[in-house]
């Protein structure tokens, strides 16, 4: 990549020779490039050249190989999403990379290991940190620095081993989109064979949901406003596709399930659309509220909530242990993330703009 200064000789051997504390203090002549902004706003993002970060005793230095974008990354750049961001602000939370150096206290990784980031550092397992007044939302590319950088230096607990069966771009899609679908359907949803699952849309989370549910043996119904995308979803394994522009999707779900309704709905739209999901869900079914495409305020009728007693649960990605479970499942079942388009590092603005076009699957920046 243009503009990078590295030591002479074989780069990997040189970098590995600076393991442990020897790395600290040697980076004064080493530079990297990253995308950052000095203020919230859609047009402030630019490439900057900065010194490589130093690592502490429990940190790892990772060379980034791919970054997967989420619509949240675009919202963060445009509005800050109400968070107290630190500037210069580096966006994005989902990456894959290769460990280049480790602190002397690191035990989980060594140079050369392939890793992926965790979306919510510090949430290792169990209940999410935070309380009723201030629920936690300390994520990469938000409260914590982002990953749209040639190198990152984070605590070792902020990474997990990458799947062996995926390339760098594919692996980078797991930390947010993949884990969100897994957490909703498996970790919290306890999905089982024969369940009827409605997946709204054909974005990253939706297609992970389709593939995971299909692997479990569930019957998957996909809704979309695009006939072309529905055809692709059917080819990916969906049992049924509903065009929500030309059909009443709730009535169609009733027809496809013999009036049983959906055992599980991945609610991507949010807003007033939640009311439709409450109508479509089966008695004692589950609605995982994931998206905010139709607004941050939700609404819906109370009657189906009272009469059908569904579980209505918000999903904000998941913890590290569940991500490790997902990685293991990906390698076992051969799941291949769907990537709509791969961009170069210098094309980050174009990649972010692509998110507004409703990609079929994920948008990834390769390094």
UniProtKB/TrEMBL annotation:
Every Enoyl reductase (ER) domain range: 41-365
Any Pfam family matching the protein: ADH_zinc_N
GO function terms (MF aspect): oxidoreductase activity
Matches recorded under InterPro entries: ADH-like_C, ADH-like_N, ER, GroES-like_sf, NAD(P)-bd_dom_sf, Zinc_ADH-like
Organism: Rhizobium fredii (Sinorhizobium fredii)
Residue ranges the record marks as coiled coil: none
SUPFAM superfamilies: GroES-like, NAD(P)-binding Rossmann-fold domains
Name of the protein: Zinc-binding dehydrogenase
Lineage of origin: Bacteria, Pseudomonadati, Pseudomonadota, Alphaproteobacteria, Hyphomicrobiales
